[in-house]
């Protein structure tokens, strides 16, 4: 197992994420003990992880990273239930409840999964290329989960400048994935199931073609296609996959016009903290040796994140 990538990036990402969460606790909680508990737990976790790196087996470090990412994700998701119904959006962590809906959860799931797959494919490809900048190239790739949402939203703004109706990537995806963003998924489950299967097949084909596992030579084309789709998602969906009737205002899942500000655009992805956690998750999954274990790790982190978020909601005062 190549542990160098995680060793170089994980501790620093953990420190930054912990500091952001501590800042949030010190600013928002009325209980003076809460931020100190968060600080102590985060500091102890990072220290234990640093010690585990020097052991013969890397399993303790992997387990600590899984728990850290799961707790961080759960905490970030919990902010949508903790935040007031009105107020300004938060670019670091969620500050409103605007994006605490099933529709936005579905959008984030699709987007985060694609981001992780893209980042892993990129770093696996870069490992086979000697560019004389080993540490820097991994830093660049693990920065994709932070960079791509900005590029997606910028591409949406450019497309919207030439469109009469207000458009956004989440509404376009929901109208495509469910057939109608105004209809519950359960009421049109067949359409949702087919688009989900299509998405999974496309991601599998991207992996097979990128690694040359389908009898062909390895290729950069799947990576280029995924990046193009994510950056120009709104333009591609509007011009190819979505009919004009799906661009009407009643098909728009945004609740108000203030969501066009950059803090709101980033909050719907979970804020910078969530994007940093995705970067850490990418580094972790990349260092898992077997593909089946990579998938299992992704599922475990997702399940634990949801469980921790739900537990925090149940124990909320």
How does this model look, in words?
With 317 residues, the protein is mainly alpha-helical. It has one domain. 69% of the residues lie in helices and 0% in strands. It is built from 13 helices and no strands. The model has no long low-confidence stretch (mean pLDDT 80).
Topology record:
Layout: H1 4-28, H2 33-52, H3 59-82, H4 102-126, H5 134-142, H6 144-160, H7 169-178, H8 189-211, H9 221-231, H10 233-241, H11 262-267, H12 271-286, H13 291-314
Give a short synopsis of this structure.
This protein has helices at 4-28, 33-52, 59-82, 102-126, 134-142, 144-160, 169-178, 189-211, 221-231, 233-241, 262-267, 271-286, 291-314. It has 317 residues and is mainly alpha-helical.
List keywords for this structure.
317 residues; mainly alpha; 13 helices
Number of helices: 13
The helix/strand order is: HHHHHHHHHHHHH
Mean pLDDT: 80
How far is the N terminus from the C terminus? 44 Å
Count the beta strands: 0
Radius of gyration: 20 Å
Largest sheet: none
Secondary-structure-based class equals mainly alpha
- Low-confidence segments, given as residue ranges, are none
Name the beta content range: under 5%
Number of structural domains: 1
Task: Categorize the overall geometry.
Answer: globular
Helix fraction by DSSP (H/I, runs of at least 4): 55-70%
């Amino acid at each position: 197992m190549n542990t160098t990538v995680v060793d170089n990036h994980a501790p620093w990402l953990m420190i930054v994420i912990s500091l952001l969460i501590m800042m949030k606790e010190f600013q928002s909680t009325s209980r003076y003990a809460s931020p100190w508990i968060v600080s102590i737990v985060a500091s102890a976790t990072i220290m234990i992880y640093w010690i585990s790196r020097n052991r013969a087996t890397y399993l303790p470090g992997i387990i600590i990273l899984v728990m850290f990412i799961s707790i961080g994700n759960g905490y970030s998701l919990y902010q949508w239930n903790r935040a007031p119904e009105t107020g300004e959006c938060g670019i670091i962590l969620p500050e409103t409840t605007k994006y605490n809906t099933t529709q936005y959860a579905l959008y984030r799931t699709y987007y985060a999964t694609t981001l992780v797959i893209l980042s892993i494919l990129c770093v696996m490809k870069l490992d086979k290329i000697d560019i004389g900048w080993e540490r820097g190239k991994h830093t660049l790739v693990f920065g994709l989960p932070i960079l791509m949402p900005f590029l997606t939203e910028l591409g949406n703004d450019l497309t919207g400048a030439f469109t009469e109706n207000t458009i956004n990537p989440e509404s376009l995806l929901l109208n495509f994935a469910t057939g109608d963003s105004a209809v519950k998924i359960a009421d049109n489950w067949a359409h949702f199931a087919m688009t989900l299967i299509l998405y999974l097949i496309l991601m599998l084909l991207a992996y097979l073609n990128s690694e040359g596992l389908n009898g062909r030579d390895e290729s950069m084309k799947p990576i280029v296609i995924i990046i193009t789709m994510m950056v120009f998602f709104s333009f591609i969906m509007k011009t190819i996959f979505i009919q004009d009737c799906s661009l009407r205002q009643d098909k728009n899942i945004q609740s108000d016009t203030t969501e066009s500000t950059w803090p709101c655009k980033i909050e719907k992805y979970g804020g910078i903290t969530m994007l940093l956690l995705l970067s850490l998750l990418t580094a972790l999954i990349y260092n898992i040796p077997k593909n089946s274990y990579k998938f299992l790790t992704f599922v475990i982190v997702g399940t634990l994140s949801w469980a921790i978020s739900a537990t925090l909601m149940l124990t909320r005062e």
